[in-house]
Specification:
The protein is of the alpha+beta class. It has a single domain, classed as START domain (Alpha-D-Glucose-1,6-Bisphosphate, Chain A, domain 4, 2-Layer Sandwich). Helices cover about 25% and strands about 30% of the residues. An 8-stranded antiparallel β-sheet has the order 2-3-4-5-6-7-1-8. Helix 2 packs across helix 3. The radius of gyration is 16 Å and the shape is globular.
Length: about 190
């Protein structure tokens, strides 16, 4: 199955500020990854081509990094994830900037089931939390915080029970803006292609 999942958000700031967030990924001052709610992104070195790591059971290697503009990660695990995910910065004509996350892969073997049943809802929730974090970092607020679906909350509770509570707590923690908001439905902008 071919998977194409796109999450993006427009910010009323210049591309240099948005790109600076990407460059903090996996570092001690990471201001983009929502590690307050999800397993932290960890790499075996600085964010640079060839660095390896991941978050939770998802493993990848940095395939390309253009500081302030983009980073692409090539999947190594889970089994059956054949593709990449990337963050890119896109300047707008009005002076604003779009931060875009794209996951493009072909699933095979066990991932034919694990992607749609387990990973996709968690991926979508994590990405919306990351975009909320970026919005808070860049504007000081989150206009419409994302909310987790009942399915995501259930999957997180099950994962915590199986791992003995490792990672982040399954309950709702405050978003960077301190609210739970009415937000966007989880999975907005995510599509599957047959």
């Amino acid at each position: 199955m071919d998977v194409y999942s796109l999450h993006e958000r427009r910010f009323p700031v210049g591309p240099e500020r948005v790109g600076a967030l990407i460059d903090t990924l996996s570092g001690g001052d990471d201001r983009l990854w929502p590690h307050h709610r999800w397993p932290a992104m960890r790499l075996d070195g600085p964010l640079a081509e060839g660095a390896s790591g991941g978050h939770g059971p998802v493993r990848y290697t940095v395939e390309d990094h253009a500081p302030g503009r983009r980073v692409r990660f090539r999947f190594r695990a889970p089994r059956g994830f054949d593709g990449f995910h990337e963050l890119t910065v896109h300047p707008g004509p009005d002076g604003g900037t779009v931060l875009r996350h794209l996951l493009a892969m072909r699933t095979r073997g066990p991932a034919l089931l694990t992607w749609p049943l387990l990973f996709r809802p968690l991926h979508d929730a994590l990405l919306e939390d990351a975009l909320d974090r970026a919005e808070h970092e860049l504007t000081g607020t989150v206009r419409a915080p994302a909310r987790w679906s009942a399915r995501t909350r259930l999957l997180r509770s099950l994962a915590a029970a199986v791992t003995g509570g490792g990672g982040r707590p399954p309950g709702r923690s405050a978003t960077p803006s301190g609210g739970g908001g009415t937000g966007r439905p989880e999975g907005t902008g995510s599509t599957l292609a047959p």
